[in-house]
Write a structure and sequence with these properties.
Number of helices: 16
GO molecular function: ATP binding; ATP hydrolysis activity; ATP-dependent protein folding chaperone; unfolded protein binding
InterPro entries: Chaperone_TCP-1, Chaperonin_TCP-1_CS, Cpn60/GroEL/TCP-1, GroEL-like_apical_dom_sf, GROEL-like_equatorial_sf, TCP-1-like_intermed_sf, TCP-1_chaperonin, thermosome_alpha
Strand content: 15-25%
Protein name: Thermosome subunit
Number of domains: 3
CATH class of the largest domain: Mainly Alpha
Keywords: ATP-binding, Chaperone, Nucleotide-binding
CATH topology of the largest domain: GROEL, domain 1
Family: Belongs to the TCP-1 chaperonin family.
Helix content: 40-55%
Amino acid sequence: MFILSEDSQRTQGRDAQSSNIMAGKAVAESVRTTLGPRGMDKMLVDSGGDVVITNDGATILNKMDIEHPAAQMIVEVADSQEEEVGDGTTTAAVLAGNLLGEAEDLIEQDVHATTIVEGYHEAAEIALEAIAEQVDEADVDDEILQQVAESSMTGKGTGGLTATSLAETVVEAIRHVETDSGVARDNVTVHTQIGASSNATELVPGIIVDEEPVHDAMPAEVKDASIAILDVELDVRTGDVDAEYAIDSIDQLNAAIDAEEGELKGYAETVADSGADVVFTTEDVADRVATALANEGILVFEGLGDSDAREVASATGARRVGALEDLEDEDLGSADRIHTETFGDDDLAFVEGGAAAETVTVFVRGGTEHVVDELERAIEDALDVVATALESGEVVPGAGATEIAIADKIRQEAAGIEGRKQLAVTSFADAIDVVPRTLAANTGQDPIDALVDLRAAHESEGRAGLITSGDEVSIDDPFDNGVVDPADVKREAIESATEAATMIARIDDVIAAE
């Protein structure tokens, strides 16, 4: 009797567990060498020949053509980390892989998967307590926020800019969108433009739209702008039904032409009478209407995408209008200045100040597409972690110090846990050690010697991390050296890695249909 299709493949027991764990470990290993300030980059080439060069864990895992379902769970760990806190994706993936490796050793020792899961969850709770104990008691001020941003970007591709100079821009951007109710992270955008050194990267108090004026005679700059956003085609109206009109005389032809001209001129007059001197529309603008609007000194941008229109509306306070005759004064938004600039073959519209001042844009420059793409990823991560640190007000030491503290506390607590679950708790601590060991290996140090020295320094000083300064590597207090991470980044990495590892470890039957 066939219950499953004859073409189905089924793997059970140890074979299933081993296959899933091996896949998870392989994916985690693929990003391990990118961890830390001396982490290496990966070059990813897709089937179409497009190249991505990055050391961002989430980007690497998403660009890889991963088919194994267990390996996909590790990718989801990185995605979750990226979505929740914006950084620590490599840490979370590597930790998940090492938790699986420790679980595999326990399974070979006949420790049941349920016992491993229980031990891992208990160890994760101890880890969260250890993180809370490592939180710096000082207020999170601009100096600490800059350290958070710099720690996030160190080792990533930042072109000709240093992480220190970029950190100042990142903190300024986040402080700009700080409100009484929190940080409006969505009000900070990143716009990339190829064609200059990364040193030209700057903060724009407003938004940037990739559009050009519809007519060359329109002004290149409008100050104290009143802005209308239309979902209206400024062209001769046509009916929905096909129809033909017979014209028997020149007078009739002239009358038709005059009517058309009057309709088009009326559009320009309606816009001018509304008080708007800048118009963004999602539809097209006829050439004759554009000319008339240019004669009125009105700056017009056509064919905006829906997302751009929403962004302009949000930044300027303008309301989108679906019929020109409905345009009223209260529908208009405002900005201190709107101007257009040309960069190579691209024209950009800058909407600055006024109502737009509630939003800011990090205008990223770079000489090549690869540079600006990696710089954008680094800045996006830094913006996320600075926003996270500012909202939570909690930071912990980086450079592996927090992981050393977590592993130490778990080993201490493990002594009071009875039964085989103690083995799982201790194995969790061993898995946590992968972070400082990997940091050491990526800086050219012996991982075992570095781990021993870090543990000894932690016992004597209470806080010890692997500090990299130029070509020198030393063991010191990360807080004293400005190596700081948001506590939420560590918490999310522990929680997401534990969830993925325990889910994979419990699978003992894989049924694949062909």
